[in-house]
Amino acid sequence: MNLPNRITIARICLIPIMMLFLLVNFRFYPEPLHWGSFQLSVNHLIAAIIFLLAASTDGIDGYIARKYNMVTNLGKLLDPLADKLLISAVLISLVELGRCDSLIAVIIISREFAVTGLRQVALLDGKVVAASKWGKIKTVVQIVAISLLLLNNFPFQFVGIPFDDIAIWAAALITIYSGIDYFVKNKELLQAHNA
């Protein structure tokens, strides 16, 4: 259990805490924060901070593992699992809150399962499907979009731009494209196992 794996496990442990702040309405919460017509509940602000903290650890654990030669099989399993759990949990919570279209959540979560399946097929052949450029872009756009949804479109609410809605639809489209890109670039894997 090296440092990168501990960071990854910490990311997984932050998920239920984030969901608790998102979905449970505790009585001891202070009044929502107000700036003119803008309103943000304190629990959603805390959930957003936890989400950003958890999302930021994704790059950190991988960087430490590669730099200090701490890459393990456990880490290879846990790291992508942690990412998928985090994104899936927050999207399902946002659907429950009426802040995200269920179609978007289904698209994004389905793509994650599909690419995970592709990676499992690759592992059968002893190969690793590395993250693509579009996969990395997809992750960044998803994090930005989800953060905006958690923060009620702050600060774009002040200028009347629904950037949170634009960003989450952009995330869905990029997610679809990056998923297709993975399968096109690795079609020989599927062909080999389909023969």
Characterize the structure shown.
The chain has about 200 residues and is mostly helical. It has a single domain (about 5-190), classed as Up-down Bundle (Four Helix Bundle (Hemerythrin (Met), subunit A)), CATH 1.20.120. The chain is built from 7 helices and 2 strands. A two-stranded antiparallel sheet has the order 1-2. Helix 1 runs parallel beside helix 3, helix 3 (about 75-95) runs antiparallel to helix 4 and helix 3 (about 75-95) packs parallel to helix 5. The longest helix has 26 residues, at about 40-65. It is globular and about 60 Å long. The relative contact order is 0.13.
In short:
The protein is 73% helix and 3% strand. The chain has seven helices and two strands, in the order H-E-E-H-H-H-H-H-H.
What key attributes describe this structure?
7 helices; 2 strands; single chain; two-stranded antiparallel ribbon; Four Helix Bundle (Hemerythrin (Met), subunit A); 195 residues; mainly alpha
